[in-house]
Amino acid sequence: MEKRTGWGSEYPDTLRNGEWEYRAFTAEKKPNENAKLTACFECHKPTANQDFVYSYDKLKSTAQ
What we know:
Blueprint: E1 2-3, E2 20-21, H1 38-44, H2 56-63
Antiparallel strand pairs: 1-2
Protein backbone atom coordinates (compact mmCIF):
# COMPACT_ATOMS: atom_id res chain seq x y z
CA MET A 1 0.00 0.00 0.00
CA GLU A 2 1.07 3.53 -0.70
CA LYS A 3 -0.50 6.95 -0.41
CA ARG A 4 0.01 9.78 -2.91
CA THR A 5 -1.85 12.95 -3.75
CA GLY A 6 -4.73 12.27 -6.14
CA TRP A 7 -4.65 8.49 -5.87
CA GLY A 8 -7.88 6.57 -5.36
CA SER A 9 -10.18 8.88 -7.29
CA GLU A 10 -11.14 6.07 -9.67
CA TYR A 11 -12.66 3.97 -6.87
CA PRO A 12 -16.26 4.28 -5.70
CA ASP A 13 -16.94 6.00 -2.38
CA THR A 14 -17.99 2.66 -0.91
CA LEU A 15 -14.37 1.44 -1.20
CA ARG A 16 -12.20 4.52 -1.38
CA ASN A 17 -10.30 5.37 1.77
CA GLY A 18 -8.44 8.54 1.09
CA GLU A 19 -5.61 8.55 -1.39
CA TRP A 20 -4.37 5.04 -0.73
CA GLU A 21 -3.55 2.46 -3.39
CA TYR A 22 -3.02 -1.25 -2.84
CA ARG A 23 -1.07 -3.83 -4.83
CA ALA A 24 -0.07 -7.45 -4.31
CA PHE A 25 3.04 -9.00 -5.79
CA THR A 26 4.18 -12.43 -6.87
CA ALA A 27 7.33 -14.15 -5.63
CA GLU A 28 8.97 -12.84 -8.81
CA LYS A 29 8.28 -9.25 -7.60
CA LYS A 30 5.74 -8.62 -10.36
CA PRO A 31 2.22 -7.25 -9.75
CA ASN A 32 -0.22 -10.07 -9.03
CA GLU A 33 -3.08 -9.33 -11.41
CA ASN A 34 -5.20 -12.08 -9.78
CA ALA A 35 -5.13 -10.58 -6.29
CA LYS A 36 -8.48 -9.46 -4.84
CA LEU A 37 -7.48 -5.93 -3.88
CA THR A 38 -11.03 -4.97 -2.90
CA ALA A 39 -10.36 -6.91 0.30
CA CYS A 40 -7.65 -4.35 1.15
CA PHE A 41 -10.04 -1.46 0.60
CA GLU A 42 -12.82 -3.16 2.59
CA CYS A 43 -10.53 -3.82 5.55
CA HIS A 44 -9.10 -0.29 5.70
CA LYS A 45 -12.35 1.56 4.89
CA PRO A 46 -13.67 1.69 8.50
CA THR A 47 -10.64 3.73 9.58
CA ALA A 48 -10.29 5.86 6.43
CA ASN A 49 -10.41 9.14 8.36
CA GLN A 50 -7.39 8.16 10.46
CA ASP A 51 -5.05 6.98 7.68
CA PHE A 52 -4.86 3.91 9.86
CA VAL A 53 -2.09 1.43 9.14
CA TYR A 54 -2.16 -1.98 10.79
CA SER A 55 1.07 -2.85 12.56
CA TYR A 56 2.65 -6.26 12.24
CA ASP A 57 2.30 -6.88 15.97
CA LYS A 58 -1.42 -6.13 15.90
CA LEU A 59 -1.95 -8.37 12.88
CA LYS A 60 0.02 -11.16 14.50
CA SER A 61 -1.95 -11.03 17.76
CA THR A 62 -5.26 -10.92 15.87
CA ALA A 63 -4.33 -13.98 13.81
CA GLN A 64 -3.57 -16.09 16.87
